[in-house]
Amino acid sequence: MSDLLRLEICVPGVPPVVGGLVEEALPDPVDPVREGLTAWLAPRLAQGWEETDTPEGAIFRIHLDDNPAGRDLADALAAAWPHLAIRRESVASQDWGAAWKAFFTPIAVGEIFEVLPPWLSHEGHADRTPIIIEPKMAFGTGHHPTTALCLERFGELSGLGRIAPGMRFLDLGTGSGILGIGLCRLGLSGIGLDIDPQAVFCAAENVLANGVAAAMRTAAGSLDCLAPGERFDVVAANILAQPLAAMAPHLAARVAPGGVLILSGILAEQAETVAAAYRRTGLPEPVIRLSGEWAALSWS
């Protein structure tokens, strides 16, 4: 296996607003640099990244394959953000697992799910539904708000009976497979699609690790992989705002009458644009849930 590139990006914090107002009563200041960097990274890093808050600001930590594509991305990052301090170092491949193990901890999501890595699967809580995810180079570990928003909505709609055992799902942009696996845990069956073959490989491994191979199949591709007219009771797509808006008529057509549609990977300021694209297909106003700068839209 090749070595990896580790990039650490230092983003200075926004100074607190002071004056005649009580500082504790002020909302958290918006950090345009941090938001801009997040928006720049999101379409380029399907595997995600780590963010750590410090008294001086935030540190973004990224791991890339140490190959021409990885180095090109590192160069593009430095060129796009020349005013930020970026530290680049090579990490031996054998340290990759150790680095993830130090970062990846169990996380409770909503009222139902708990996402755990395989080496901590024995530490799950009895009152939570476990999802075992091997953190690799595919998006979706439960730590990112967009993934968590979708899983939380699954739990809510399951409690309301809108997502129920026996239903069929489509997980578009499956990444690690986490959303489809979560739906399988609720008694559904379906398919996870991703245009990245490496993501499909990771998803297939996680499907096996969770014992849901009989309920979920994976494939490389997009909506054109599906049979003409095939519809699903639950459609989930955690991608990005622009492709979600562009495919609105085609994706909405894959939702069975009375079905559920959940979209994420959307920045909060992009939510209305995506919602408008789906209103044009005849859907009503969505329920919008926010987590920090990210949004999830759902129709049920």
UniProtKB/TrEMBL annotation:
The keyword Ribonucleoprotein applies. The keyword Zinc does not apply. Keywords: Cytoplasm, Methyltransferase, Ribonucleoprotein, Ribosomal protein, S-adenosyl-L-methionine, Transferase. GO terms for molecular function: protein methyltransferase activity. GO terms for biological process: methylation. GO terms for cellular component: ribosome. HAMAP family: Methyltr_PrmA. Belongs to the methyltransferase superfamily. PrmA family. This is Ribosomal protein l11 methyltransferase. It comes from hydrocarbon metagenome.
